[in-house]
Amino acid sequence: MIVWINGAFGAGKSSTARELVDLIPNSTLYDPELVGGAVCRLLPQKRLSEVTDFQDLPIWRRLVVDAAAAMLAEVGGVLVVPMTLIRQDYRDEVFGALAARRIEVRHVVLAPDETILRGRIDSRAAFAAEAGAGGGVAGEPGSEAYADMSGETPAQAAERVRRWCLDHVGPFRDALDGWLAADAYAVDTSALTAAEAARAIADAVAAGHAAPCGIVQTPEPTGETLAAGVLLFDEQDRFLLVDPTYKPGWEFPGGVVEPGEAPARAGIREVAEEIGLELDTVPRLLLVDWERPQPPGYGGLRLLFDGGRLGTADAARLLLPGAELRAWRFVTEEEAADLLPPVRFTRLHWALRAREQGTVLNLEAGVPVG
User: Fold this and answer.
1) CB < 8 Å & 24+ apart, contacts of 255-259
2) Would you say 226 and 256 are in contact if contact means Cβ atoms under 8 Å apart?
3) How many CA atoms lie within 13 A of 207 on its CB side?
4) Which of 63, 92, 121, 353 has the fewest CB atoms found within 10 Å of its own CB?
5) Which residues contact 205 (CB under 8 A, 6 or more apart)?
């Protein structure tokens, strides 16, 4: 399993993690910042210049998961992972991919008082500048991973990292007051040393207070897949989207068609499993879209069906399984553009046109053909 120590940049995750490996039997420290350092040396400078944080690089998120799985295969036991996750969609992508590999995650967040946190950031940056540390504050994205390419003096690097950490205090506080409050076990470290914080985490894990993240273990495909999605409309002609816990972005109700299962029946099954709604009739096919393989994905056929209109009473009966979906909402096409990944939004656009025209569309990689 993994004990993931989240927290604002400068909150003391790395020092707490080093103490924690001495308290949890058969545990190993795994710092994803090392992956960030490798990525910074692998990618061309042009690509690196497009982001301010290596977490924004998809390759970093993939490699963090792959390296974690490889380490557990090598050493077994428990990985202690100190790394800030502010964006919920990055949490979904990383934790969902770990769950797909059957790796259990205990999510803990260090939550010191903001005034104390800012003071710690200032003091650590001052120490780093005096000590001549190459990137300033160890363990933070944007610091040592870029040190060799910065050409900065220690004082300049420390000041850059100090500003970077302080700029992220507000966004992290928003996350802590929002999605992190429900997702992670919080430890107030305002008055705790790193050793005391580690003890609090070890006790919480042992007692089950820091429980495993409830994410459905969706196996990674080993070849092309056939998936069926269902569009359900309300009385204002908006359609239903759901927010999965195991991958970034919103989605249509639906899922992978099982061997020997009819696609429309798969859509009916998935709607019942995901939102607790039994469809009375077989949904009408709107489009077939061939999704080209894009490694590491295999692609395959994606079908969208028209599940019809839901009355007010039907909408009131919608339920969500907490381990798979965290939210649902009815949206317009314009609103969906901000929620769906581009590939799914393109598919939605053509499905709505097919519905308006009363036809079925054949798409290849999102483009109508035939």
Assistant:
1) 255/227, 255/228, 256/221, 256/225, 256/226, 256/227, 257/225, 257/226, 257/227, 257/228
2) yes
3) 8
4) 353
5) 3, 24, 106, 108
Give me 45's structure tokens: 């400078």
- What does the pLDDT look like over 219-243, one tens digit per residue? 777 789 999 999 999 999 999 999 9
Six token digits for residue 111: 């939550």
- Check: CB of residue 12 under 8 Å from CB of residue 120: yes
What whole-number distance in Å separates Cα of residue 272 and Cα of residue 318?
10
Q: What is the pLDDT of residue 133?
A: 45
How far apart are the C-alpha atoms of 127 and 137, rounded to whole Å? 9
pLDDT < 50 stretches in the chain: 129, 131-149
Tell me the three state secondary structure of residue 288. strand
- 21: Cβ contacts below 8 Å, ≥ 6 apart: 27, 28, 29, 80
Q: Which of 257, 291, 280 shows the shortest CA–CA distance to 366?
A: 291
Task: Report pLDDT for 152.
Answer: 65
Q: How many residues does the chain have?
A: 370
CB atoms near residue 188 (< 10 Å)? 12
- Distance from C-alpha of 166 to C-alpha of 355, rounded to nearest angstrom: 50
